[in-house]
Amino acid sequence: MNVREVARLELPTSYGFFDARAFESSSGFVYLALSVGDLSTGGPVLTRVHSECLTGDSLGSLRCDCGLQLHTALRAIAAGERGVMIYVTGHEGRGVGLINKLRSYVVQDAGADTVDANLHLGLPVDDRKYDDAASVLCALGIDSIRLLSNNPDKAAALRRAGLEVVGLEPLHVAAHNRNINYLQTKRNRLGHLRPLAGEVGSLQFPDPGKLLGSIRSSSRRPYVAVKYAQSVDGRIATAVGDSKWISGEGERAVSHSLRARCDACMVGIGTVLLDDPQLTVRMVPGASPIRVVLDTTLRIPLAASVLEGDAATVILTTARADHKKIEQLRRQGVSVRVLPEGPAGVDMPAALASLRGSGIKSLLVEGGSKVITELLREHLVDRLVVACAPVILGRGVAAVGDLRVARVSQGLSLTNRSVFVLDDDVMLAWDVSNNNSDARGSE
Asked: 126 an active-site residue?
């Protein structure tokens, strides 16, 4: 056996309490086994062999799905009350190391995929070995596993090392626009398993990529997709402001997958005060976007849900905001940006330019009516996603207000239609043809 145990302790985590055992291999790399339950009896053990990824696991990088897979696997193992996670050091960048992985990223930014980038640098596509991981599993008394992985080659390598792999249980997480090409390359060129379009875990729904369309940002502003759910008669809330829940659970899961696909999600302060949304990704395994709130006079409560949790929050306000409250929010770890004021509040072009200047390339707008209307009126929307629910509300709140359209011919034209039926709801998406040629700007 090429590994020896060097430490054992209880490791409390947000997912549960794990028996942590550290093993050192003859190569000097450390293997950390996190287990729950009795591994010696009960048949094949639910197992994740996870290759270290500093950028994804620790820093939350959206260039890969490693961090999401790590946390999803830990949650699954803890929930099953019997299983093990083997965290493998020395596997950074599929075995090429951190520096070479970053060099590969530079080549990918120039247009290569993850496979060709490694080859361009004279690096192996995948240099990982699993013999020591198999030795760790044997040291734990495990000889038969159910492998949590999308990688059939990993299962084959563990079998060659003497383990019985009775099944491959894919880890499906929601894709982000920043890593979708990487995930497609792993599937198409490296043979990884991927879910059907729009499938995450046990949920199946429209492909978020088809709903969002072709995301193309500019140097001036992010790609803007407006999404809302409405009744058959075009209401997003009742006359007294109630909007929970117009659409069904499946449609709400789609909304979360759309959030997971975008860099940021924006609402106006009216939505925060009325609905107190979290704007995080909870109904699918995925990364939460940066949360953006338009708040002209900084009315946001300090205890608002959108300020809580690990996801970052940015508030866009104006010079009318109270300076003491700005400092309070900044002490809470909230970014507050003071921008020019326009006729309807925070100047919308300035708001979008500020977001693009901080690196945001894709923005999902979820309300409210005032924000949606201004974006459409100013020709700043690229994609419109509407969920139509089988309910009639009569008098209530419309999603879109006055666009100053006098003739039908002056209305915004919608093209490139997509239609999906989801349970009792119907989802529709279109590109918005903006007549204002300067709306997007040049790259």
From this structure: yes
